[in-house]
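Summary of Year 1 activities. Much of the first year was spent building the evaluation harness for sequence design. The harness presents a backbone, in tokenized form, and records the residue chosen at every position. We chose the following record to illustrate the format because it has been used consistently in internal testing since the harness was completed.
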């Protein structure tokens, strides 16, 4: 089975967006370097809406290339799906997306895309495992990510920490209200205006 990694860019005070779902400076590091993340300048992984390929520091590129390249399936919540319109049926990494939602896939929305709608986080991970095989399952942070962590279904937590304080907004772990221990970080990489951290989850 594929490894389940909860992953997102986050402020130092634990927010993935402000109260209006604006990410502010959290994604600026995607464009502040000279090293493309994809193969050359083909725009690989670009889901920024700018039509510009990601160009990051060399340290960040060496971290994110293999990580993003290993993804087979993304698991996301309906809120994010609606905000980005499901990346127009083209996931930024991997080939499949599982959306946790009590509402079905919008009628007529990109029928060719491998997007699957389920109404439970356990069912979402089961479907993602089926689709990903041995590849990584990337869980977006927020309410759904927090629920998947609380259910004991996350293997690792990966955070791209940006030096900004939001003060309020959408929390990385959503409204999770119980304690969950993580191991000491097994990855600590300093990029330009970002610190990449990865922790194994204790179960």
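For this record, the design step produced the sequence shown next.
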């Amino acid at each position: 089975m594929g490894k389940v990694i909860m992953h997102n860019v986050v402020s130092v005070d634990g927010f993935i967006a402000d109260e209006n779902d604006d990410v502010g400076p959290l994604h600026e590091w995607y464009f502040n370097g000279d090293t493309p993340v994809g193969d050359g300048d083909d725009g690989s992984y670009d889901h920024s809406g700018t039509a510009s390929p990601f160009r990051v520091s060399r340290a960040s590129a060496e971290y994110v290339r293999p990580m993003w390249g290993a993804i087979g399936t993304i698991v996301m919540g309906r809120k994010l799906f609606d905000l980005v319109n499901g990346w127009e049926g083209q996931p930024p990494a991997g080939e499949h997306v599982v959306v946790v939602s009590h509402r079905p896939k919008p009628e007529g929305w990109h029928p060719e895309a491998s997007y699957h709608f389920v109404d439970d986080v356990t069912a979402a991970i089961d479907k993602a495992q089926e689709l990903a095989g041995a590849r990584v399952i990337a869980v977006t942070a927020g309410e759904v990510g927090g629920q998947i962590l609380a259910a004991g279904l996350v293997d690792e937590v990966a955070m791209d920490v940006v030096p900004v304080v939001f003060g309020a907004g959408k929390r990385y772990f959503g409204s999770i209200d119980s304690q969950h221990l993580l191991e000491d970080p097994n990855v600590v990489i300093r990029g330009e205006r970002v610190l990449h951290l990865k922790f194994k989850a204790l179960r």
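The mean pLDDT is 93. Quantitative recovery figures across the full test set are reported in Table 2.
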